Request: fold
Amino acid sequence: MADSIDRFIEMLWLEHGLSDNTLSSYKTDIQQLERWLKSERQSSLLVCQRHDLLAYLAFRLEQGMKPSSTARAMSSVRRFYRYLMRESLVSSDPSLKLENPKLPKKLPSVLSEKQIDELLAAPEIDDAIGLRDKVMLELMYGSGLRVSELVTLELSQVSVAQGLVRLNGKGGKERVVPVGEYTLDYLEQYLKDARPTLDPSCRCQAVFPSQRGQVMTRQTFWHRVKKYAFSVGILSNVSPHTLRHAFATHLLNNGADLRVVQMLLGHSNLSTTQIYTHVAQHRLQSLHEKFHPRA
Reply:
């Protein structure tokens, strides 16, 4: 079975160009089901039946796993069984017509423009680490980068002269996003004065190397964001993705076109971007209720 899972993951990479993080999630989801079938049902993936998957869903619910996590896991399982059917490794697909758990409609939390200003001003730019973090925060909020795009961004992908950054997004899709003049000034200063001290040997191609001169992990940058948020009194659950949310929402609040925001974010489908319109509408409704005399 391990060979079938590995071939499935290889197929996803070859045919769909999925990122390493996405491939890892697929593999983990399928391996978790495989282990559960073996221990709880004395069964396997190749002979799994629909009632086994229903029992697995109930098990995840009893264990308190998030509906969003379970929905993603079942999406992985469906795709895996479609692959097994295509390869004639199973005679029937137990995941057909299997419903996902209902997901609550949850709006992404968004920092106000004032909170964003405070967060971006938090790093001390007198040293290389502080200036690096300042530029990373500015770039995430100013251009809407994903955290994986930010930490893996290479020097060859940045053009200070043109004010552009070329990104390799999900599924290997490339897009070019503009960088504002304010951010460019700090980026130019960082590349000239700070980055050489972080990577004296010039062996790392990442724009934002760690203190060890290596590619920074997403987890490390997440901790940096939490640290700066806490230092300015932002106690809500802040992550790097919060800056991407704020980028999209603040653009829409200030009149940007939804299609433009979709292109900047690198979303394949407009429906993915439309969640931000709900956030913007929610804020407009709050302002109306607060300030309008007839609200």
User: Anything to note?
Assistant: The longest strand covers residues 164-168.
